[in-house]
Amino acid sequence: MKRNPITSPSFNFKHLSYGFFTRNNGFSEGIFSSLNCSIISSDQVSNVLKNRKKITDTFGREAEDIIIPRQKHTNKCQIIGSKIPKIINADALVTTRKNIILSVLTADCAPILLYEKQEKIIAAIHAGWKGAKSGIIQNTIKEIIKLGGSSMNIAAIIGPCIQQDSYEVGKEFYSNFQLEKDQNHQMFSKKNEKYLFDLPQYCTSILKNCGIKTVNNMGICTFENEDNFFSYRRSIKKGEKDYGRQANAIMLQN
């Protein structure tokens, strides 16, 4: 993939900049090669900071203009107002501010970007199965509504993440989702006594159930595309001690 960041013609709006970054064209080495943006990885901090600067440079902003929360697979969403906390423990960010980059980091989990077109509200969501199941998507939409937005005016895009063919889970995982809702069986297929989970479809169903009509799914697999994306599952399979995370970012501009 030569483009970095990746965008979609189906998610293109005036006064909006966004992108799903690959792992390429950065400063990190080894298993973190090369655009690793995770400060909590065992990568050299100096390299991570230079990589993050590449993200802000893409948006024409300074290093202090990007907000990346500490993600813990929770359902917590943080509104970014005039005062920005030094440390943000959350898995989603929402703002009406211009020229502030909201970013979440992923390595198989689904990055979801939202744009409320009427009130000009943006959001970035880190949605792994835990966060999605516990309500991170719904909570983010609730915060958008608190700011005066409407789900009817929200456009959503799901970026590169692990796709169903690569997401093998056990029977207990499947049963856990079945207990939540009978229709969740549609999120699984079965292969050799194992189940394959469709994370982007699950996220799409939640978004649509919240009243969002426009949901774009890029359908790009992080696990299968080693040359372009970090993957937690792939790192475990290869026996690596750590892994990098790619950035996914969105910004309102003047």
UniProtKB/TrEMBL annotation:
GO MF annotation terms: copper ion binding; hydrolase activity; S-methyl-5-thioadenosine phosphorylase activity
Classification via Gene3D superfamilies: CNF1/YfiH-like putative cysteine hydrolases (3.60.140.10)
Catalysed reactions, semicolon-separated: adenosine + H2O + H(+) = inosine + NH4(+); adenosine + phosphate = alpha-D-ribose 1-phosphate + adenine; S-methyl-5'-thioadenosine + phosphate = 5-(methylsulfanyl)-alpha-D-ribose 1-phosphate + adenine; inosine + phosphate = alpha-D-ribose 1-phosphate + hypoxanthine
UniProt KW keywords: Hydrolase, Metal-binding, Transferase, Zinc
UniProt feature coiled coil, ranges: none
Source organism, top-level taxon: Bacteria
PANTHER family: PURINE NUCLEOSIDE PHOSPHORYLASE LACC1, UNCHARACTERIZED PROTEIN YFIH
UniProt family annotation: Belongs to the purine nucleoside phosphorylase YfiH/LACC1 family.
Protein name: Purine nucleoside phosphorylase
The organism's taxonomic lineage, starting at the top: Bacteria, Pseudomonadati, Pseudomonadota, Alphaproteobacteria, PS1 clade
Gene that specifies this protein: pgeF
